[in-house]
Please model this.
Amino acid sequence: MTRIGVVTFPGSLDDRDAQRAVRIAGAEPVALWHGDHDLHNVDAIVLPGGFSYGDYLRCGAIASLSPIMADVIDAAGRGVPVLGICNGFQMLTEARLLPGGLIRNDHGSFICRDQRLRVENTNTAWTGSFEADQEIVIPLKNGEGGYIADSETLDRIEGEGQVVVRYLGTNPNGSLRDIAGVTNDRGNVVGIMPHPEHAVEAGFGPDTPAAMRSGIDGLGFFTSVIERMLANA
Amino acid sequence: MPTIVVEVMPKAELLDPQGKAVASALARLGHDQIAGVRVGKRFEIQVDGPVDDNVLATVQELADEVLSNQVIEDVVGIHYEPETETAAQ
Model:
């Protein structure tokens, strides 16, 4: 069975939800600890959301310097799939595994809502289960989710197809060019600000026209990496 | 103890929502003459022993690589404040 590690940092909030999403998608979740130098030989890694180290210094900055991140960076370099969600996305930009950075929402307030997105790159390790330009709805909850990069970088990542998901409708946090998630040039490392792990089980996801809380659009991120692992096995 | 001060600001071309919030609070208090506010960070780094070129070079490196994120921030000043030493004693 595919084994997917979920790293817990001091101040992680969504590590258990990420483990649950991994399990529901059909893989074995493996709890990893920020202070270890041990990835337990997992096939893929999730950096979950939360407020690691109280967002001190900058969101994700101190976590990006934690012992296990040296191993995560090394694994990412070997092609191991890594998904950073929200605070995990911030860690990946701080670790320079992904281009750009994330700053406080332009309107200054924390935002929490179900968010429409368009999946623009379905070739990454984490988005292969989606159709090209598929529209999905998953929860978004952040205070510092404004994606920024200089215009040269933005042009480059758009040109290279490194924008994975984009916000649809009103831009929720001032992210430049409505960018909600990006990947590295190899497509194994993905960072997204919204939370797919909160939309994986009917009864607990966003509302859909069919039924209240029946949205499971987030599941595709986790099934994608499992399919990728099985295809490579 | 010798103290080295590192100052970091959000990049000038980027929106600073924190500064904007402070500016609008000041405007609410009637301070119409305040045209804008930007909020940055000041690090006071105490070092053991004398502050020589090696120590300053190390702090410069840490300022660029850890204390700031060059994608979103600039290091706008690094200075050594020997007077802090006497003030503290």
Observations:
- The longest strand of chain B covers residues 3-10.
